[in-house]
From TrEMBL:
InterPro entries: AAA+_ATPase (IPR003593), P-loop_NTPase (IPR027417), Spore_III_AA_AAA+_ATPase (IPR045735). It comes from the Eukaryota. GO terms for cellular component: chloroplast. Signal peptide: none annotated. One of its GO terms (molecular function) is ATP binding. Keywords: ATP-binding, Nucleotide-binding. The keyword rRNA processing does not apply. Residues 200-331 form the AAA+ ATPase domain. This is AAA+ ATPase domain-containing protein. SMART domains: AAA. It comes from Vitis rotundifolia (Muscadine grape).
Length: 467
C-alpha cells in the first residue's frame, strides 16, 4: 500500500440546485399589508425572492425595482378611492352604473338616490343627474340591499372598510322603498385650516349644516392627532361614519382607535366607558345631539381630556337656544339685576348669562367646504352674543392659489371709551387673476365714515391653499 503526502486539497465545486420556478407577482399586486417596502433579488439566475428592506431615505445605490415599488405604493393611495367608489357603484344595476361612470364629475359624486316608482338620481355639485329613464322597481332595491346586509335600528348600513353610507326609507309595514347611497371620502389635508388649534391641544366643537364636511374634518383631525402628534386617540363612532363600516376601521383614521356604538341611545354610556377603560388623551365624537351626550362630554372635559366633536346646528346661536345642547357652551341662565346695575349696563333687569365654563375651548362654524369661522374663545363668543355684542372670530379660507399662504393680520383698533370695534386691514399681495380682498374680508368704504364701523366685528383672516 502506497502512501503519498497530501500537500493541497481542493474540494469539488458545489452545485447549486435551482428551485422550481414560481409565477412572479408584479410589484403593483403586492398586498398592501406588508409593513415595509420589498425588493426582488435574483442571484445565480434563481427565481425572484422577496427580501425585506428597511431604510430611511434613498440609499446611494437605490435599486430600480425598489424605486418602482415605492412609486407604485404612492400611486396606490390615489387609486384607493376609485376602488371604494366602484364598490358603492356595484349596488346599482348595470345601466345605471355605466351612466354614472361616464359622468365628468364622477369623483365629485355626492350620493345616489333610488326611490320606488321614481327615476334614479345621482347628485353632483353641479346638480342632479338622471341615471335611467325607467323608474326604480322592487327588484332594483332588492338587488342593492342584498349586497349591503342588514340595516341597523337607525336604518343605516355600510360597506365593509369603506366610508360609504346607505340609508333606507321604509313604509308603514317596514319594507324598504327607498335608498340613499352617500359617498364617503377621507380627504387628506381637509383639517389644515385648524392645524394650529389641534397642535395646541384645544378642544374643538364643529357646527355646520348637513353635507358641509364636518365628519370629513374630524376624521382628518383624529388621524392628525394620532399619527402626527402621537396622541392616544379614541373615536366614539355613532354610525360608523368616521371609521367606516366593519370591524376593521378605515385607513383614513390613521392610528386612532375606534369604539362602535350599538345603539345611538347608548352613546353617552360608550363615551364614559371609553374614558374609564382605555385611557385616551383625545376623544373624538360625531353628532352630539342629546342632553345626556352633552352631559357626558362635559364630564369628560372636566377630566382634562381633549375633545373634538360635531353638533347639530348652523351657528353658535343655535346651540345657545337649544335646551339640549346649551351645556356644550356652558349653559344659559336668567339673572335679575338691580336697578343700579341694570342702569349702569344699559340693559333690562332680566338678562341671560352663561351659567358655567364651556365644555369646548374653541368653536368652529363651517360656512362651506372652503371657509371656516373660528372662535378662539368659545366662552367669550357666548358672552358677547348674550350681551348683544358682536363676537370676535377669525375667517379662514382656502384660496384658489396653489401655495399655502397664511396672511398675517394687524392688531385691530379698539376704542374702549366709545366701545367701537375696529376693522382689520390685511395687506395681501395677490395676482390680478386671484380673488380680490373684498372676497376675504369686509372692509368699510371711505365714504361710509367712522360711525359705520361700530356694527362690524374685528376679523382676522387666514388664507390657505394646497399643493
Amino acid at each position: 500500500m502506497l502512501i503519498f503526502p497530501l500537500l493541497r486539497f481542493s474540494p469539488p465545486a458545489l452545485r447549486l440546485q435551482r428551485l422550481p420556478c414560481q409565477p412572479q407577482t408584479p410589484f403593483s399586486k403586492f398586498s398592501p399589508k406588508l409593513p415595509y417596502p420589498t425588493i426582488h433579488s435574483s442571484p445565480f439566475s434563481s427565481p425572484l425572492r422577496i427580501l425585506p428592506a428597511r431604510f430611511s431615505g434613498y440609499p446611494r445605490k437605490f435599486p430600480n425595482a425598489l424605486l418602482s415599488s415605492y412609486l407604485a405604493s404612492a400611486s396606490a393611495g390615489e387609486d384607493e378611492f376609485e376602488v371604494e367608489l366602484d364598490r358603492l357603484l356595484a349596488l346599482l344595476p348595470e345601466e345605471m352604473r355605466r351612466r354614472v361612470s361616464e359622468h365628468p364629475e364622477l369623483h365629485q359624486l355626492i350620493e345616489v338616490v333610488m326611490d320606488l316608482g321614481r327615476k334614479p338620481l345621482a347628485r353632483f355639485p353641479s346638480g342632479d343627474f338622471v341615471l335611467s329613464d325607467c323608474p326604480i322597481t322592487v327588484q332594483d332595491i332588492e338587488f342593492a340591499t342584498s349586497q349591503v346586509g342588514d340595516f341597523a335600528i337607525d336604518n343605516r348600513a355600510g360597506i365593509s372598510r369603506t366610508l360609504h353610507r346607505i340609508s333606507a326609507i321604509r313604509n308603514r309595514k317596514g319594507a324598504i322603498i327607498g335608498l340613499t347611497c352617500r359617498v364617503g371620502r377621507a380627504i387628506s389635508g381637509s383639517a389644515n385650516l385648524l392645524q394650529d388649534l389641534v397642535k395646541d391641544g384645544a378642544s374643538l366643537l364643529l357646527i355646520g349644516p348637513p353635507g358641509v364636511g364636518k365628519t370629513t374634518i374630524i376624521r382628518e383631525i383624529a388621524r392628525m392627532l394620532a399619527n402626527d402628534y402621537k396622541k392616544r386617540v379614541m373615536i366614539v363612532d355613532t354610525s360608523n361614519e368616521i371609521g367606516g363600516d366593519g370591524d376593521i376601521p378605515h385607513a383614513g383614521i390613521g392610528n386612532a382607535r375606534r369604539m362602535q356604538v350599538p345603539n345611538s341611545d347608548m352613546q353617552h354610556k360608550v363615551l364614559i366607558e371609553a374614558v374609564e377603560n382605555h385611557m385616551p388623551q383625545v376623544i373624538v365624537i360625531d353628532e352630539i345631539g342629546t342632553k345626556l351626550e352633552a352631559m357626558a362630554a362635559s364630564t369628560i372635559a372636566q377630566r382634562g381630556i381633549q375633545l373634538v366633536a360635531t353638533a347639530h346646528g348652523v351657528t353658535i346661536e343655535n346651540l345657545i337656544m337649544n335646551p339640549s345642547l346649551e351645556m356644550l357652551v356652558g349653559g344659559i341662565q336668567s339673572v335679575t339685576l338691580g336697578d343700579e346695575e341694570a342702569s349702569r349696563r344699559g340693559v333690562q333687569k332680566t338678562v341671560l348669562e352663561r351659567k358655567g365654563p364651556s365644555t369646548f375651548s374653541c368653536g368652529v362654524e363651517i360656512i362651506s367646504k372652503t371657509e371656516l369661522q373660528v372662535h378662539p374663545s368659545l366662552e367669550a363668543t357666548v358672552d358677547a352674543i348674550l350681551s348683544g355684542r358682536f363676537p370676535h372670530f377669525e375667517v379662514r379660507k382656502i384660496n384658489s392659489q396653489g401655495v399655502e399662504n397664511k396672511v398675517q393680520s394687524e392688531a385691530f383698533v379698539h376704542n374702549s371709551s366709545d366701545e367701537k370695534n375696529g376693522v382689520v386691514e390685511d395687506g395681501l399681495e395677490m395676482n390680478e387673476e386671484s380673488s380680490t380682498l373684498d372676497e376675504l374680508i369686509s372692509e368699510p368704504s371711505p365714504d361710509m365714515g367712522g360711525s359705520s364701523a361700530q356694527d362690524m366685528s374685528p376679523v382676522r383672516v387666514f388664507a390657505y391653499g394646497f399643493f
